[in-house]
Amino acid sequence: HLDSMELNNNNSTISKTTRPQAQPWIDVKFTGPILQNLHELFADSLGVNVSDKRMGPRGMSKYKYQIDFGGGGGTTWRGTLTKMKFPGVLFHHETRMKDWFYDDYLKPWEHYIPVSWDLSDLRERYDWAEAHPEECAKISQRATEAVEYIMSAPYMEQLHKELFHTKLGPIVQQYQPLSEEERSATPGQDTLNVILNRYHNDGFVTEEVAACEDDGDSCAVLVRRNEYLHQRYRSNAMK
């Protein structure tokens, strides 16, 4: 929500106020200060407090403007879609990354107000919103309707069909288990190890990110945020 971060009007970078009496044009903060220690660096070095105590959806929904920042979960389905469901209009941070699960359905100026990846047009977009409250209300209404559809069973079925049947299906169909001849040539190795060895022989390096039991009911994630649990498969490790 727009609630206390100062931006430089020329290049949209965080700047320290040189005149105590000067007021920034925007008031915005991070509402979920998970990285509070990092945020404190801004306050110590630049005099800018970029986060405060956590604010839940009920409190955020009282603001007429919402904004999401790409990065560590800033434009996740929960972060973006939740804000789009609020009565206020969303300023959506459009980055070079693609939010694949809804990006093709949501359109700029129809469901949200787009903001460029470097935030250089944020002030322009804000001024437009201030001058066009009725258009903002229409955008917000269309966004609410879009989110209701995106979270519905028909859309989930459509997405499942598109991603798993249309795109992933042909890949799965190409899988071939080891033939008897290959089993004889690679005694003691299962299909997975043989496939990995083929990748390694072609110069690829693979990384195991999850491990599942044979029953498929329990899986363990091996690569976690801020943890170095990387288990790399290399050709010499398979011998």
From TrEMBL:
GO terms for molecular function: transferase activity. Residues 61-164 form the Glycosyl transferase CAP10 domain. Keywords: Transferase. PANTHER family: KDEL LYS-ASP-GLU-LEU CONTAINING - RELATED (PTHR12203), PROTEIN O-GLUCOSYLTRANSFERASE 1 (PTHR12203:SF35). Belongs to the glycosyltransferase 90 family. This is Glycosyl transferase CAP10 domain-containing protein.
